[in-house]
Amino acid sequence: MGWKFRKKKKDIPGGVWLKCQGCNTMLTRKKVEEVLGTCPECGFHFKIDGRRRVDQLLDEGSFEEFGSDVAPVDHLQFFDKEPYTEKLKKTQDKTGLSEAATVGRGRLDGRDIVFGALDFSFMGGSMGVVVGERITLAAEVAREEQRALLLVATSGGARMHEGALSLMQMAKTSVALGRLGEAGIPYISVLADPCTGGVIASFAALGDIILAEPGALIGFAGPRVIATTIRTKLPEGFQRAEFLLEHGFIDRIVPRTRLRQEISCCLRYCTPGVRSAEPQPEPAGEPGS
Amino acid sequence: MADQKNNTGTAKDTPRTGLAFERPIVELERKIVELQNLSEATGMNLNGELKPLQQKLLRLTRDIYENLDPFDVVQIARHPLRPQTSDYIAQMLDEYLELHGDRHFGDDHAITTGFGRIGERRFLLIAHRKGKETKENIACNWGCAHPEGYRKALQKMRLAEKFKLPILTLINTPGAYPGVGAEERGQAWAIAENILAMARLKTPIVCVVIGEGGSGGALGIGVGDRVLMLEHAYYSVISPEGCAAILWKNGERAVEAAAALKLTSRDLQRLGVVDEIVPEPLGGAHRAPDEMVAELKGRVLEAFGSLDGFDTDQLLARRYERIRAYGSLDQQPEAS
Q1: Which residues from chain A sit within 8 angstroms of residue B185, using beta carbons?
Q2: Can you tell me the mean pLDDT for A86-106?
């Protein structure tokens, strides 16, 4: 049971001390980890890996990964500075991950769910065939076993190295989510910094409920591409979670420290038959405004 | 009733600034035209000179077009004289009644939607529009749609579903527009919702990549039961220029990027992304637009015909399997 890692690695950069990328305060790692990888001073959210998401969101020891045997194939024999297969191998060694998505069964406050998370440290969380396949499997298992689906997305978009096949993963994940939705099973999408391109233009945008972490960059095109296209400076806060909330595209901005509690609350409302099958009493604390 | 039918200038009498790789073809064509003109003006019989030149032209064109580099294909797909949506509407359809507006924000000219008919076959057309001259290019934003374009498409697709009309989409876009307004109005959401809707829509959908298949902007009207691609169109996750800029910090290495991305019709058929390649006239669609239109017309009717026998459940099940198989991991790549 549990997360298969070849070796441990640090997702939050730095040693015992680290500098907040938001307010430049020097912080101890311990302090940052106590508040789930955020800055206790300014609330900046560090990027965290999928394993930490499991620890933060699921009931202890409840996670059982599936789809880990789905391994990358170099369909295109892609070559840039080095062959894609080499790049994959190096990234696997560096991150201890087999690919940019990890999915599995788990429990959240006693409720059975299917959980998935992307890892930005693995080629920018980009979606190739494996990520597409694992997310699709997650949606299919959720449907077959009538479990709610929870996905945490952070990604630069579709993976260039797998060409149009990456693009088609947008369709593949979406069609599986379509069937999940038709079965009346809830899907909660959590957007973490950054979430752009083919991932936000497919499964990440299709949540019944969409939550985002504060300050997360969320958008179809990256800000640099837009700035180059329109040749002007972009407005302050453009494409940040707060901007998306203001324009009506996400349901809530939720600090990481409250994420589990709010997801649990949403699931209580969205799981069919909840009145008769309430697994746990409501946890203390109001979700807030 | 039908929209105005523009006449495409025939390739023969339009001055062409040939693409670099086809310059020898253009020069030879020019020489032949000059001789023909001379023959007409003077009444001299120059057949003896003309015939070998015409044969040479055929050989040369065949030779060049059989050995196209992937980036050459990208350039052909972008060729300004390549037949576009307006040509297919004018020449392939017997009737077109455009329907405007997304019912939320506006009417995006980068995508046209409306009722179309070929013979007895009625359908909903959804097609990218690039425009032919500058004013039109600007109005159509060179085929780069905003969210309202995708939402217009979705609203009309729901209409088609309601009245059991099949859908034909013509894809020709460099990509969905990356701009401030597009982001403010949820470009990512507009595309995602279209992809989801098309994956489950209860009516047959035939998609044709007629020129540029630019990433999410193409897929936003590109999910269906049968995906066709013109021989020299391209379909890619990112433009070769964009790919080169990211990988090598140098947009000028687009030629290499185009090769690496495997974006040609032949590659994509091998990878299972497209079902059928629609052959182009020798020398590309821009050299004989009428032939291209006629060829596609037949293929579209065939594609619709091939879906006639399925009821909605079968159609959706087949579509699911088709999409589910993208990148299927038992499909091992061929050794290079």
Answers
A1: 247
A2: 96
Gap from B199 CA to chain A (nearest CA, Å): 5
Closest Cα in chain B to A160: B237
ipTM for the complex? 0.91
CB A27 within 8 A of CB A17: yes
> Which residue segment(s) compose the domain that A55 sits in?
48-270
**CB nearest to B186's CB, from A163, A197, A249:** A249
Contacts of B104 in chain A (CB under 8 A): none
- The CA distance from A153 to the nearest CA of chain B, in Å, is 14
**Residue A220: which of B187, B213, B331 has the nearest Cβ?**
B187
Which residue ranges form the domains of chain B, and what is each CATH number?
A: 1-67 (no CATH), 75-331 (3.90.226.10)
Where helices occur in A48-119 by DSSP H, the ranges are: 50-57, 84-95
**What is the pLDDT at residue A282?**
53
| Burial of B104 per CB tally in 10 Å (0-12, 13-18, 19+) | exposed
Q: How many structural domains comprise chain A? A: 1
Q: Which of A220, A228, A232, A234 to mutate to test the interface with B (most CBs of B within 10 A)?
A: A220
User: How would residue A280 be classed by pLDDT, with cut points 50, 70 and 90?
Assistant: low
User: A41, exposed or middle or buried, with CB in 10 Å at 0-12, 13-18, 19+?
Assistant: middle
Domain harbouring A219, CATH code: 3.90.226.10
Contacting residues for A143 by C-beta, under 8 A, at least 6 apart = A176, A179, A180, A183, A185
Nearest to A178 among B199, B329, B333 (CB): B199
pLDDT (tens digit per residue) in A136-186: 999 999 999 999 999 999 999 999 999 999 999 999 999 999 999 999 999
- B10: number of Cβ within 10 Å: 11
Summarised one tens digit per residue, pLDDT across range A187-203 is 999 999 999 999 999 99
Assigned domain for A62 exists: yes
Q: List CB contacts (< 8 A) between B243 and chain A.
A: 160
What are the tens digits of pLDDT across the range B58-104? 999 999 999 999 999 999 999 999 999 999 999 999 999 999 999 99
